[in-house]
Design brief:
By secondary structure, the chain is of the alpha/beta class. It has 16 helices and 13 strands. The strands form two sheets. Strands 2, 3, 4, 5, 6, 7, 8, 10, 11, 12 and 13 form an eleven-stranded mixed β-sheet that branches. Strands 1-9 form a two-stranded parallel sheet. Helix 8 links the parallel strand 7 and strand 8. The chain is globular and about 60 Å long.
């Protein structure tokens, strides 16, 4: 598994997402930002943007990664001035643009700055991707831009938002990424916020199936990360242990029809696994290693969690991140319900955005996770496993053992 050097999450975020604008030419049905064609009044202006970048720099070196997102950040006329200012301040930069003619005309700007880019691809064929993105012909445009970026040597990852519309297409998307030469796949577990409706969401069993499938994908030379799917870390650790002991993971997880289909389809398309698992995790969650600044300067634990923490126009981002009481509780894993007694509350902790969106409690349990605390403890005790043997394989591994199983 891929791990990172231990990050001081109490002191600084690993990822700072700045929603530079609401403006975007697309109309995606699951859009978190409910993006619109023109910018809203109240956007941080150029000088305020530079002040925010100064604040990110104040976290110290190595700096957090500042992700310019939106909407479409390329819709801002001053975007390259802001990017260059961040680079000048030694702030690491990433870009999350929409695939439009603006991006197609900006490849030289991106390549010359050697910044990383994330591109959204939500289907393996036009009828799925274009339906989600709301623009006919957008699928082919996206595939073309990805191929150009790979050919130019631009560091590019693909982001995929998983929902009812494309869950059964995930194996085919993995095949497409393999064919294009994409090496990193960031998979977003849908949060019903913005334009995303609850009927697009999966069941807890289906999310368990998706998580296990993504672990399978990581054996095909693609580094897999998840957003709002921290339970993937529980899956990855458990799979690692079960497979090292030759135990049938499918029975342990009681996997369903969705996993059966995706697992078999993946083998049909790509053959047998080719590498060791390439799972990337840093133990982050909303408010722990992640912070989000909206177009108007309002700070949230993440872009999927509309719980306001303050505003960078009136308060330092450094102060908000380090001192806000809700963020401190999130980072110390002071959760309620199953998340509060779970062995994985430190390395997982559930999606805070989902708990807040569906249960109106930023510290509540994640309703998408079917796991019953104690099952893993029972497993490792039964097998006589020393968890410290695996602590070097997943960053931030700090299981709290044992706990009493809770079946309620």
């Amino acid at each position: 598994m891929h791990t990172a050097t231990r990050w001081p999450f109490d002191e600084k975020p690993l990822l700072v997402f700045w929603e530079t604008t609401k403006a975007c030419k697309l109309a995606c049905k699951h859009c978190r930002a409910s993006a619109i064609l023109n910018p809203l009044p109240g956007e941080l202006n150029t000088e305020e943007g530079k002040k925010l970048i100064d604040d990110v720099a104040r976290f110290g070196q190595p700096s957090p990664i500042l992700v310019f997102t939106g909407g479409d950040p390329l819709m801002r006329k001053d975007i390259w001035e802001l990017v260059d200012y961040a680079i000048e301040r030694k702030v690491r930069v990433a870009l999350a643009p929409a695939v439009t003619n603006i991006l197609e005309n900006s490849l030289n700007e991106i390549e010359s700055r050697e910044i990383s880019v994330s591109i959204s691809l939500d289907g393996s064929r036009p009828e799925i991707h274009d339906n989600i993105r709301g623009i006919p012909g957008h699928f082919q445009r996206t595939v073309n831009i990805l191929k150009q970026m790979v050919e130019r040597g631009i560091r590019v990852q693909v982001n995929t938002a998983v929902m009812r519309d494309n869950a059964r297409d995930l194996a085919d998307i993995a095949k497409l990424l393999n064919d294009i030469g994409i090496k990193t796949w960031e998979v977003f577990y849908l949060i019903p916020v913005g334009r995303a409706q609850k009927e697009l969401d999966l069941t807890p069993q289906e999310w368990e199936d998706v998580s296990n499938f993504l672990y399978d994908v990581s054996k095909y030379g693609i580094v897999v990360r998840t957003t709002e799917g921290p339970m993937f870390r529980r899956i990855a650790l458990t799979r690692l242990i079960l497979e090292s002991r030759g135990i049938d993971y499918m029975k342990f997880f009681r996997l369903g029809k969705l996993y059966d289909y995706l697992h078999n389809r993946l083998k049909e398309l790509l053959g047998e696994p080719k590498t060791r698992p390439m799972v990337a995790t840093t133990g982050t969650r909303d408010g722990k290693g992640i912070i989000f600044i909206a177009y108007d300067g309002t700070v949230y634990p993440s872009g999927f969690m509309p719980y306001p923490l303050g505003n960078v126009r009136t308060k330092s981002l450094v102060e908000i991140y380090r001192t806000h009481p809700v963020l401190r509780k999130i980072r110390s894993a002071e959760f309620k319900g199953r998340c509060g007694i779970c062995e994985f509350r430190d390395i997982c902790g559930g999606s805070r955005a989902r708990a807040y969106t569906l249960k109106a409690d930023p510290l509540g349990e994640d309703p998408a996770c079917p796991y019953q605390p104690g099952e893993f403890t029972e497993l490792v005790q039964k097998l006589g496993i020393n968890i410290s043997e695996y602590s070097s394989k997943i960053e931030g591994l700090r299981l709290i053992l044992p706990v009493k199983p809770s079946r309620s």
